[in-house]
């Protein structure tokens, strides 16, 4: 932090912004993450079959990535359906961690 601040105070030429600066001075040995999106589903997102399909897709992606557990994020209406499916289909979806998106989580406190 201090080195970055000093580089701006003394107007060191070609000093990148914070993220770029840290990328240049810190060696990251962690593997890069791969982010991808699933194929869009052209049906109502609150349809029980659609929610179950997304849960199955999440498990499939988890298996492909050799992950024992998978996190899925839904809005409140869809999460309620996913929780029902998870509780009635035990142990099929026991490896899914279902949670609310940040907007719906924040709205729970207001």
Describe this structure in words.
The protein is mainly alpha-helical and about 110 residues long. The protein has one domain (about 1-35, about 45-110). Helices cover about 45% and strands about 10% of the residues. The chain contains five helices and two strands. The chain has helices spanning about 1-10, 20-25, 50-65, 75-90, 100-105, and strands at about 70-75, 95-100. Strands 1-2 form a two-stranded parallel ribbon. Helix 4 links the parallel strand 1 (about 70-75) and strand 2 (about 95-100). Helix 3 packs across helix 4. The mean pLDDT is about 90.
Report a brief summary of the structure.
The protein is mainly α. The chain has helices spanning 2-9, 18-25, 48-64, 76-88, 102-107, and strands at 70-74, 96-100.
- How is the largest sheet built, in terms of strand order? 1-2
> How many domains, in number, for the residues?
1
Distance from first to last alpha carbon: 36 Å
Q: What profile does the largest beta sheet have?
A: 2 strands, parallel
H/E element string? Answer: HHHEHEH
Provide the helix percentage: 40-55%
Mean pLDDT: 91
Taking all Cα atoms into account, the compactness measure Rg is 21 Å
Number of helical regions: 5
Q: Tell me the β content.
A: 5-15%
Total beta strand runs? 2
Structural class: mainly alpha
